[in-house]
Amino acid sequence: MLNFLPAPLIGLLASLLLALNALFWVPVLLLFAIIRLILPFKTVRLWIDPVLVAIAETWISGNSGWMALTQRTAWDVEGIAGLDPHNWYLVNSNHQTWADIFVLQHLFNRRIPLLKFFIKQQLKWVPIMGLAWWALDFPFMRRHSEDYLKKHPEMRGKDQAATRKACEKFALIPTSVMNFLEGTRFTPAKHQRQQSPYRHLLKPKAGGIALALNAMGDKFRAILDVTIVYPDGAPNFWDFLCGRLRRVIVRVQSLPVPEHLMHSDYGADAATREAFAKWVQQLWQDKDAQIERLLTETGR
Questions:
Q1: Is the pTM of this model over 0.70?
Q2: pLDDT tens across 154-186, in order?
Q3: How far is it, in rounded angstroms, from Cα 132 to Cα 25?
Q4: Domains detected in the chain
């Protein structure tokens, strides 16, 4: 609607609307989160958590509003029909840009329960947003490489304990547990440094999804495997704010929860870790081939 304006002006307007939306809703979130903190009883949590989710979903709707105002995006989306907002999902996606978060929240808002991300520990200090993530029970995780964990196996246990504690809260009301298997955003430099065997993806890390399945696999109705493709190239966050997200392709595939992996001990059993790695690698091979097909179809 506002695409007739110069891109930098659109970016400033979108930044202002993004900030005002957050500044309005975060204090409301904190009010209810503090009540929950003061009264740490299950009955109180069962009453307050749905209120917090409703606030967050309204906040996301506000973001979708300014996106519609400032973007002229062609959305090509398949696979989101028939989802259940009253059930549990484990959601996985490739990751290229901060815009991915807004794409996922926009498409899934109120179609499935609120997406809850595993957040890097250092991000809890981000002004305003760190408080919002805390209020919404987004788990803060210390992400260690497999090489580090081999040298410090005691840290694997701490990661497991933190994940299980978070998943205990997730199990109380319907929740969508969001995991980026790559652990970071794709860039050509990271791709080359990793010597990734995939053309469009970084190497996947099975730890997060494995711990979530171990902790609450019985709850998940399905695994939603999301593939995001930007035919014109992944926009950086400023380009996204400036309304330069022209086309986005999203494919969502509902996969069964792998029962043979669900109850095995990822942290203690090397054979289980190898089985998870093979399962994730196959998932990533299929995703890489799908991205290649979609890019070919769009002429990129």
A1: yes
A2: 665 666 676 777 777 888 899 999 989 998 899
A3: 9
A4: 73-297 (3.40.1130)
